[in-house]
User: What shape does this take?
Amino acid sequence: MLILGIDTSCDDTSAAIVEDGGKIISNIVSNQDEIHEKYGGIVPELASRRHIEMIWPVVREAMNKANASFRDISAIAVSHGPGLIGSLLVGVCFAKSLSFVNKIPLIAINHLEGHMLSIFLEATPEFPFVALVVSGGHTNIYIVNGFGQYTEVGRTRDDAAGEAFDKVSKLLGFGYPGGPVIDALSLKGDPSAINFPRASIRGCYDFSFSGLKTAVLNYIKKKPQTPKEDIAASFQAAVVDVLTDRAVEVATKKGINRIVLSGGVSANSALRKKIKLVAEEKEIDVLLPSPHLCTDNAAMISLAAFHHFINGNIADLSLNPKAYMPLVSADG
Assistant: This one.
């Protein structure tokens, strides 16, 4: 069974073909970093226009690399939210057109579910597990009891972790995307040089990074001569500590001995190192997708779609994208 996946949720145009819900045949990603870098962040209108230009070339390349025609495709999957509404519209409209013209079933996928399940492209973790989805637009913790069985136990109250990385990178005078910049810069700095705050919200597992971002801004204004490497490393340490502590706390209190990371920020080298170290001390396994599967890609959309397809969850041509779309279990 071959499923063609399409993802245009943010600024990456991606198409992939995955066989039987696990084997990647092709996975093409066209990023827009050169477009948005000069602005220090994503410009939604420019992202949408670029998706329009790239969607067919990217899908065609995915098909060609897989040596497949539309007659070979069992279903077409598309991310219909959450994300930038203009970007999502491009992918959804294109997928609906392909579905209609070629008479192929259409599968609607929540982008967050794609991230959460991306580990299954490389491994087969047992259920249940704690899923930490951390990216430019999302920072959420879920309990995953099976495919389609998700319970959100924590989320960000303000900025997502990846958004904080982008903003701090801009404050330091560096480009977009900020995650790789801060990660690389931190390797040259002292993570204990500055004691930035670690926000803790009593009575829940939610996150807050807005105060940390403001603390970095105020510190730069007060002490502009501080080495940028130390500021970056100290900021990153604060983010990593909070993400690690929350995920491990949930796993410990819920009696679950597996944590799965996903999303663009899960490619961060300090986070990957710290969470494995802390979790293993408590005999909790940590599973990490390869870095190229952490960022937005269509292979994870195809993977998620496989489980919807075999359960008969087919979308119709009335499908519309949604900028805000909480991830809930298949039964509602």
Q: What stands out?
A: The chain has eleven helices and ten strands. Strands lie at 2-7, 13-19, 23-30, 73-81, 106-110, 129-134, 139-146, 149-155, 258-262, 285-287. The first helix runs from residue 33 to 36.
